[in-house]
Amino acid sequence: MTDVTSSKSARHPHHWRHDLIELAALFTAVVVADTIAKTIAKGPEGPYLLVFSAIALIATAAFHTWWARRRSHASHAPPAGDTGGRPAAVPAARPEPAAAKGPAAEGGTGADDVSGRAVGTSLWRMRTTVADTPGSLAALCTVLARLDVDILTLQTHPLADGTVDEFLLRAPADLSARTLAHEVAAAGGRDTWTERADAHDLVDTPTRVLGLATRTALDAAELPLALRQLLGRCTLHSVPAVSLTGRPTGEQAPVEGVLEETVMRLRDPHGGTLVVERPYLPFTPTEFARARALVELDARLGPRLPRGRDVLTLPEGNEITVRRADQRDLAAARAMHDRCSARTLGLRYHGPVGDADRYLDHLLSPRFGRTLAVQTASGRLVALGHLLWDGDETEVALVVEDDWQRRGIGSELLGRLVAMAEEAGCDSVYAVTQSSNTGMVAAMRALNLPLDYQIEEGTLVITARLASAHRPAARTQRHEGSRPAER
């Protein structure tokens, strides 16, 4: 069914008054014509005058009819551009392209303005402190609107002397961080911090926190990674309560934790302290509360590991099982050490062979990383692979029982550890070994990744640059007298 109305149905309806007036005019015209005809007929040139009058009357009637039709057509003409059928559809507003929701290249997006010209945009994360008074946020939003900056998300972090507002912004590509900070300062913002963002930051905070909590609930080793992703670019250290030599370290945070501007100390449920540092940006009480909630969740759930197991067949036909391991495998790991030769333990631990067992409790702890174990069909542990969080860096380490070496077990473990590192967002992994450890060197080369080699006094450090690029190097700036960025 069409919404177009035809010209016939669009005519105005006739009324009885119009008909009465036309009838009266007709009778009047007849009377006048009869009177004139009688007067002219009595004159000498009467017939000629009647002929000329008839011609004039016909011409006048024809002109009146043409003029009436012209006005009627003009009043009922369809809109310009219409063809008399279905009206031309009004083009709907073009939806914003999907690319505008995330960055292209380095946090940029492409959009079109009303003239059709390409307009580039960039994603920014910004934090600024404003007075906790009515209208302070409105003034800030007004300035951003004047700069043609779109606010995608907003979080507020209450402080004792103000409020920290954290924004995710889409700004014109030609808007610099310095200009943005200057305008924000003019609107009442202080201690402004800006950093380039990307599509990962478009996930809203409740969704991201719930995802991190789910990962932590499924795997105890996820807590350090979850804290890093929750708090941004930070360094996390797990300080045990007892050193490898059995002496107390004196590092034991109170139950409620400690917040010291750029340093956060949380009590580790497994003993010791989790130290989180972010030198370039102070923590807020809101972030501290979120971190404490994750640690408390981990403490309530206790030891846990994913239950996945992979059964593999070696070239000679033997089956092995690869699974995750933790401190509950300590006895089996020590038994494997007892079966290993002194040379194997020396290549792995780079120290006295007698100290090897003391490292196991630390290495198997989920606070320091993830561990993969290889066991035979009979259940005997024959190999361990460790992915260790070392501040901002990540270390990989392997040990394979002598009787099971040269069968591809080490390469299999290393490939899985590197895949875990990529999944965790690590930029690189490194292995510390000796130049004589040809098996480890060959396994690293088999990864087909760019490798860097450093040799110091017989110790070889091989660093592999991971292929996955998770997010570009952040460009961080602080303004208005705040501390410079550090990494």
Task: Give an account of the 3D structure.
By secondary structure, this protein is of the alpha+beta class. Helix content is 34%, strand content 26%. The protein is built from twelve helices and 18 strands. The longest helix has 30 residues, at 46-75. It is elongated.
Provide key terms for this protein:
487 residues, alpha+beta, six-stranded antiparallel sheet, five-stranded antiparallel sheet, 18 strands, elongated, disordered N terminus, disordered C terminus
What are the SSEs and their pairings?
Layout: H1 16-41, H2 46-75, E1 108-112, E2 118-130, H3 136-146, E3 150-159, E4 162-172, H4 177-186, E5 190-196, H5 205-218, H6 222-231, E6 235-239, E7 258-260, E8 263-267, E9 273-277, H7 285-301, E10 309-313, E11 319-325, H8 330-339, H9 342-349, H10 356-364, E12 369-376, E13 381-390, E14 393-400, H11 409-423, E15 428-434, H12 438-445, E16 451-456, E17 459-465, E18 476-478
Antiparallel strand pairs: 1-2, 2-4, 2-5, 3-4, 5-18, 6-9, 7-8, 8-9, 10-11, 11-12, 12-13, 13-14, 15-17, 16-17
Helix pairs in contact: 1-2, 5-6, 5-7, 6-7, 8-10
Summary?
The chain is α+β, with helices and mostly antiparallel strands and 487 residues long. It contains twelve helices and 18 strands.
